[in-house]
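hey can u check if this looks right to u? its 311 residues, i copy pasted from the old doc so theres a chance i mangled smth
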Amino acid sequence: MTRRTVAIRLRPRAGLAAGIAALVGLVAFCWPFVVAPGRLSSSYTAPLLFGVLLLLVLAVLLAELADGGIDAKALAMLGVLSAVGAALRPLGAGTAGVETMFFLLVLAGRVFGAGFGFSLGCTSLFASALITGGVGPWLPYQMFGSAFVGLLAGLLPPLRGRAELAMLAGFGAVSGYLYGFLLNLSSWPFLVDPHSSVSYLPGLPFTEQWHRYLAYDAATSLGWDTGRAVTTLICVLLAGPAALATFRRAARRARFEAVPEFEADPGQAHSDQASADQPSADQASSDGGAGSSSSRCSRSASQPVSGRTPA
């Protein structure tokens, strides 16, 4: 079995940041069960604070991933797939829950690793929001929800062949429900109706709030989540084999984990060696010339001077 190629490796510090980000994300999604909006100055303060906190945590995590864990090749792959995901999302337009982007998060996270899947979930949703004008207070929750899909896809057990495809298709269906379940938590607390059995009522015990939310999710978005789950499952089954082969071939050619080694040009090395030897030859010839001059001077001094001596 071949080892999985990881485009963005979760180093220890980046792994710790990812764990903190996941914990903060869960708290941000589940705050209605632990914080009542009436306890703060405004009912909109809690979700806005958690939205800002999500953006800060995402920025810290992406900075940690970029700190030695991502190179130019992985960044280029992330940009290409983010653009593809941003282009795929408007095709479904959310009609009847049809989402054509999530299968890309599942397959890319599976091949390139959990860190890449997390980053792709954030960047693709952000790029899609810029294209479609979907920037708003819900965007951090959408980014974090899709980031969880890519992250979990990279943590699936290693399988190959039909077993892997079946596992990815099943996970794609589950992720469609999971994404909708998390996103509903960002809007449910604002539907306060004391006469409704599914609305959020501050001050109720956790068990009763939980039952209310399950009823609310089933009544309002179960059909939409089913459309997303079925779409993702079908896309994985149809496009999965070709996409997995393409991604793995690109990963092998990119060699994200390869350590660059630099070797000197043999011709250049020979030229450098000749240049280094040249001063030694010049010094030797200079020393030889000086020695012959001194020997000639000594022989001239030892010979008698020819000519007449004074009387």
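The radius of gyration is 35 Å.
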